[in-house]
Amino acid sequence: MEEKIIHKELSYLINGCIFDVRNEIGPGVREECYQKAVEYRFAQSDIPFVPKPRTRTEFHYRGTVVDVFEPDLLVPERMIVELKHQPEGLARDNFTQVLTYLKFWNLRLGLLVNFAMDKAIIERVPCEPRECETEEDYDYIRDQICDEHRPILQAVRKSLLEINQRIGIGYAATTYRNLAIVEFRAHGLKCESDIEVTPVFRERRLPTSRISPLVVEGRICVQIEAIYDEITARAIRTMQTHLRMTGGDLGLVACFGKTKFLIRGVRK
Predict the structure, then answer these.
(1) pTM over the 0.70 mark
(2) Cβ–Cβ < 8 Å for 42, 143
(3) pLDDT digits over 213-232, tens only?
(4) Which of 126, 151, 168 is the endpoint of a domain?
């Protein structure tokens, strides 16, 4: 069966505009130059589009701005076009950025373009609606949970499940982290988000380091991950390091993956 190409004709037309720009300008100039050239070619080809900064849109949750999104080009109700000039090639974060935009604008296709290579590289980034499974694993901390921990853990769990139910999967970890801060505070939890620690090596104090977990009620460390459909060994070891340095009692890693929402307890 032939695979159906999302927005096939429009994609070919946009690809032609991008190749025209790259062939005429070449590599080695600022992204803004390619942006303006692509806008000009879109207009010549009668492609409707909204360029940044007019694409800049705030993501509101519970009356709070949790993130701001600004794609390079928005083809209304069709696709996102994101332009880069990266001689080192495209990175995972670039794809995550496009997927975040597609999730927010409820679109099915993004084009991620890199003008810095031997030729214009155009990556198609599809975004298909997917069912989300929820998996929770508290076995690693069950014997460490005391009566003082239970109401905090229950409120944290309820907050994370609420985010998954209301927002779903598809955003970057930084967005979910901001959502968690708002949700924890909405449930009356004290949440510290700007945590700095001072590592010690053989009784020598090292420079202070900002860490990513949220510390809830001064006792529970919560690390927010995204994109992956598993909680990695690296995430577990990192949480153990942060528990040791913050003096936290217990840790939770929550991951809003591609098809799964995962919560796992972590002990020191």
Answers:
(1) yes
(2) no
(3) 999 999 999 999 998 899 99
(4) 126
